[in-house]
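Sequence of DNA-binding transcriptional LysR family regulator (Streptosporangium album).
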Amino acid sequence: MLERLELEAFLALAEELHFGRTAERLHVSTGRISQTIKKLERQVGAPLFERTSRRVTLTAIGRQLHEDLRQAHQQLEAGLARAVNAAVGIHGTLRAGYSAPWNGNLMIKAADAFHSRHPDCDVHIQEVQLHDPLGPLRAGALDLQLTEFPIDEPDITTGPVIAHEPRALIVSADHPLARRDSVCLEDLAHSPLVTITGTIPPYWLEEHYPLHTPAGRPITRGPGATYWQELLSLVATGKGISPICARAAHYYSRPDLAFIPFSDAPLIVYGLLWPSDRENARVRAFVKTLSEIAGMPPPRPALPAGGPG
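Predicted 3D structure, token representation.
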């Protein structure tokens, strides 16, 4: 009869093919994984893995056992998930939003994992426009979303931080800063700042589109944009410059724009949030799944209401 650790250690090692990563994944020591696998091999009566100083591979018997146990484990997990779903009400539809395409990719991965765990619950994902970052949540169109912090609203619960991303500055390709390898926050005082306009908390704007440099120099406000594509066009035509996540260069790159990394700007913090009065089992389960997919620590049992995560 297989013990739970033997089953989980074997399946994890068969996927990772690395004792260290398997130990990290199961939160035990590498020695514990090695001992567990040796015990299982004694029970089977044959090696399940071929080990060298450079690699770990499954033997033929190991491959067959992995296929048999993987299917059985999936059936057990699905059965348990259905029982849990029935008990806590994880069914129906979960509507999740995101504010940036790099977060959208993460959301899709989390939605796939969530649906495999909770097959009675569908996940619908949509982009949230920055000109109205909290509108869909408050209107009931979304159950939760992944967006830039800070968010400090009395009716919104902020959950765990999911990612930290470096900032860059977008300038037109013929702007003097375009020839630089990096910029600093003081450079924001040299050109009008193209910003996002809409129903946006003032403290959020100050975090991402400040009015003054760290040295206190005023930053001139340029035209405002409602959508990202509009902002990019304003910058490309020389109407101003604008800060953005550095990863945006992979999504919005074009010949009339330059993305220059900041040398001194704080990281952009992305986190989860949802309406405080509509927190439920679906939301909590998705928060847990997304945190795992992002490689972040699992959320605390009691999630804080209000304030940055």
